[in-house]
Amino acid sequence: NSWMTPSNLLFIMSDQHSRGVTGCYGNRRVKTPVLDRLAAAGTVFENAYSPSPICVPARAALATGRQVHETRCWDNASPYTGQAPSWGHRLQARGLRVESIGKLHYRNEQDDTGFDRQILPMHIVNGVGDVMGSVKDPMPVRRKARDLVNKIGVGESGYTRYDRQIADHACEWLLGGAAKDAKPWMLFVSFVAPHPPWFAPQDC
What we know:
The protein is of the alpha/beta class. It has six helices and six strands.
C-alpha cells in the first residue's frame, strides 16, 4: 500500500523447526531464551500453513505467496528461479535494500530472485537438486534414508557449523555498517538446522 512507510524488516527462518520445541510457544521443558526474547519483541504467528511438505516447493511458495501449481516447483529438482515475482522483488520496487544470509535452496545465486545480495547462500546441488526424488514409478530405493535414524544425537555436523557462520554474519550485518545504511532494508536470515543429520551441539 502506498500509505505505508518503509521500515527495516528482519525475517529469521529455520528449516524443520517445530514450534512445539520453543519456550515462546509454551514448551516448559525446552529452554530457548534467545528465541523467546526475539518472539517477545517481534511478531509470532499462532498458525502457519505450507502448500507443500517438500523443501524446494515450500520455499518457492514462501518467496512468492503462490501455490505449487502456480510456481511449478513440484519437487526438490524444480527450484525457484525468479519465474514469479517474490516479496523481495516487491520490496526492491518500494526502495528497500533486500539481502539474504544462509540457505535459500533456489536454483543458483545468478537468478534474479529478489535479493540485492546473497551472503553465504546455499542452493540446490549443481542447480539440479534431488532428481531421484522426482521418480515415482518405480519408486527408487533411497539408501541414505537410513541416516535419518542412524545419524542422530549430540554432536556437530557441517550444517551446525554452517549455521554458526550464518549467525555470525547476521550479527555482523545487523550490528555493523550494513544495517546503518539510511536506506530501509529487509534481511532474510535462513538457517539449515534442525535438518538431517539430526545432530545438536552439546549445550556449553
